[in-house]
Write a structure and sequence with these properties.
By secondary structure, the protein is α/β, with parallel strands linked by helices. The protein folds into two domains: 202 residues, Spore Coat Polysaccharide Biosynthesis Protein SpsA, Chain A; 86 residues, no CATH class. 44% of the residues lie in helices and 18% in strands. Helix 2 links the parallel strand 2 and strand 3. Helix 7 packs parallel to helix 8, helix 8 packs antiparallel against helix 9 and helix 11 runs antiparallel to helix 12. The longest helix is centred in the C-terminal third of the chain and has 20 residues. The two termini are 39 Å apart.
Length: 321
């Protein structure tokens, strides 16, 4: 059985869509664990109404104080009865045959972590999101999964015993906590699978925690990377180096370009690349999109003024970085 863990916080305006996507599943062999993170709207009322009609299938947990999505998910893991765990955000959905397809795979293959794809929905625009950068069926090694799987926990199905036996938890940070959990959980898995179908509907809202801008975001990105680095660097040096490239050199530098001077950025780069002086030779760089390759080439050659122009052009054309 699959345990679906849904953290909620003031989710009254979109939770019914999530619930509806679970009600219409073609395979109902799953349980739902709602973990309410101190909501002050009608979220709890909506969840309790749903439980009245689905008493055996639904658990409701509540935190008396705000602990963030990671802390809420940790509570859900402790109460999960299923052999596998799937994380679903309270404003997202599963396709109506998602559980059926996932159950068919885990019933026939020895899998510790199963990856699947998603659709990102913003207004009326839909974008296909691949969890791994492969078009054809491939054998997924642990090293590939650590380096190349998307950072969050959505689009993954985890064997519960892997998480609980190895005491893998979401760290007490408000952002990028899912990056830490995902990479550490994967490092404990042995067998992987990848279903290249979009079973997850990921809705982008301007006011969500993931998409809002916060002054501590860059610090927590660095904090998240340091946790993973400390745990995995010794056993997976090339994979952690690639995560450093993605998390620090690309994401962090992108956020700093518009806020800091060139001299400040130079000092930052010099300090950050001391541990990874040959990062530009990392074998996983061939897998990244062309715009990231261009940006990293500019960073490597210290052409920060052009990198700044590149940032603005990309943001103007795509609306994102």
């Amino acid at each position: 059985m699959i345990s679906i863990i849904i953290p909620t916080h003031n989710s009254e305006h979109f939770l019914l869509n999530t619930i509806n996507s679970l009600q219409i599943q073609t395979d109902q062999d799953f349980e739902i664990i709602f973990v309410d993170d101190n909501s002050n709207d009608s979220t709890i009322h909506l969840i309790k109404e749903f439980k009245l009609k689905n008493k055996e299938k639904v658990q409701i947990l509540a935190s008396p104080q705000n602990i963030g999505p990671g802390g809420a998910r940790n509570l859900g893991i402790k109460s999960a009865k299923g052999e596998f765990i799937l994380f679903l955000d309270s404003d997202d959905i599963l396709t109506n045959n998602a559980i059926e397809k996932l159950n068919k795979i885990i019933a026939t293959k020895p899998i510790d972590c199963l990856f699947f794809d998603a659709l990102s929905v913003k207004d009326t625009k839909k974008t296909y999101l691949k969890t791994l950068p492969f078009k054809n069926e491939v054998i997924i090694s642990k090293e590939i999964a650590i380096a190349l799987s998307s950072g969050g926990v959505c689009g993954k199905l985890y064997r519960k015993s892997i998480i609980t036996d190895n005491k893998v938890e979401f760290p007490p940070i408000m952002r990028h906590e899912d990056f830490v959990f995902n990479k550490l959980a994967i490092s404990k898995c042995l067998d992987f699978g990848y279903l290249q179908k979009a079973l997850y509907g990921y809705f982008q809202r301007g006011d969500s925690l993931t998409h809002s801008i916060h002054s501590t975001q860059k610090d927590e990105s660095a904090s998240a990377f340091r946790i993973v680095e400390e745990e995995l660097l010794q056993d997976y040096p090339k994979e952690v180096e690639f995560l450093f490239i993605q998390k620090i050199l690309y994401q962090s530098m992108m956020s700093k370009l518009t806020k800091e001077t060139s001299s400040s950025l130079n000092r930052y780069l010099k300090q950050r690349t001391k541990k990874y002086p040959k990062w530009h030779k990392n074998k996983y760089l061939s897998s990244i999109p062309i715009h990231q390759k261009i940006f990293l080439f500019l960073i490597k050659n210290n052409v920060l003024c052009i990198a700044r122009h590149f940032y603005f052009i990309k943001k103007t054309l795509t609306g994102k970085v």
